[in-house]
Amino acid sequence: MARECRVWMELNEDSFLAIHGFLRGLMARGVKGRTRDRVALFCTSNNIDVGDGEHAFRNGKWAGISRYMALYDPALAECGILKFNDSVIDCYGLLPVSWMPGMGE
User: Engineering a disulfide at 58: which of 3, 19, 51, 84 sits with its beta carbon 3.0 to 4.6 angstroms away?
Assistant: First the structure.
């Protein structure tokens, strides 16, 4: 799972930044709760593949992406936009992503 999330991150910087902008918008408006559902709708509505095909959104992949998001912008976790449940990704950790500050190899 860690490798799969890293591959997604390496290939989808623009999508990651679009999701980041969406989350920042939620934060600015004070919207909290059901973030995963809101992001899933945003992604499927904007043709951002976070699943196994068109209009799919995989929870396991989101678990990794959301943790990268918290490293990229800690304020999203600090304000409660991003909250984390236990996930398989937590057993493996995150792998470095070349374009993320402080994570490149």
Answer: 51
